Amino acid sequence: MHPHVEMIIRLACFLGVLVVMAIWELLAPRRVLTTAKTSRWLSNLALVVINTITARIVLPISAVAAAMFAESRQWGILYLVDWPMWVEVLLAVLIFDLTIYLQHVMLHAVPLLWRLHMVHHADMDIDVTTGLRFHTLEILLSAVIKLALIVVLGAPAIAVFLFEVLLNATSMFNHSNISLPPWLDRVVRLVLVTPDMHRVHHSVIRRETNSNFGFNLPWWDFLLGTYRDQPSKGHDKMDIGLKEYRVESQVERLPGMLLLPFARKSDSYSIAGEDVQSNPD
C-alpha cells in the first residue's frame, strides 16, 4: 500500500469516527460532563497533534511500512507456515489485540509506566477525545512494541493496516459519552468493548480502574479475570479520573498533561501500589 493512500484512508476514518461520535454525544449523552468541554477538547486534540509529529520524527517508519519491509525479507513466524491469507490476517489481528491488552495491564502494573499512563486516566470527564489522550512517551513506547511484534510475527501488511484503523476507531467509540440501550450494550459487549464497559476502567475507585483493560475485544477481560460488569456507584454517579488530580488546571491543560508523569503523586492507582484489600478504593 502506498504511504499516501494509507495516510488518506486512516485520516478519513479518524475524522469520520470523531465527527460521528461527537454528534452522537451531543444528541444522546450518557453523562453530564463536569468540566469545560472546549478547553478539554483543545488540549486533548493538541496532544494528538504533538504525538503524531513526534512519532513521525522519532520513528519515521509506519507500522504498515514495517510490515511491508518484513514481508520483502520473509521475516517472521507466519512465514514459516503456509496458511490461507484470511487465516493469517485474522490470527495477526487477534494477536495484536491481545498484545494491546497485555500492554495495557503492564502500564498499570509497572509504576514507572503508570506515570505515563496517568495522563490518560487523569481526564476528569470521559468522551471521544479521551480515547486519543495519551502521553507522548507512551505513544512512542507503544509504537516500538508494535513494530517489534510486526517483525517477529511477520504480520501481513493488510492485517496491520486493518488493526491500526480498528484500534483508533474503537478507542474513540468506547471512550465516547454516548448512550446505548441496556439490551444493546449487553449484546454488543459480547464482541466489542462498549462505552459502558470501558467507562468502569476510568472510575476513581482503584479496583474499578484496574479492570476492563480491553480496547477492542472484551474476551481477554472475560478469560483472564479482569472483567467488571458495572461501576459500584452506577454510570450516572461514578466519578471519573484520579482522586489526587481533581483540580482542573492540573490535568486539563497541555503543559500539565505533558508534565504529569514527573509529578510526585503517581502510584496510588497502579496495580503495584498498596494492597487493594487494605484500601479497596
TrEMBL record:
Keywords: Membrane, Transmembrane, Transmembrane helix. One of its GO terms (cellular component) is membrane. GO terms for biological process: lipid biosynthetic process. The chain crosses the membrane at residues 7-27, 47-70, 77-102, 139-163. InterPro entries: Fatty_acid_hydroxylase, Sterol_Desaturase_Related. Residues 89-226 form the Fatty acid hydroxylase domain. It is found in: Membrane. GO terms for molecular function: iron ion binding; oxidoreductase activity. This is Fatty acid hydroxylase superfamily protein. It comes from Bremerella volcania.
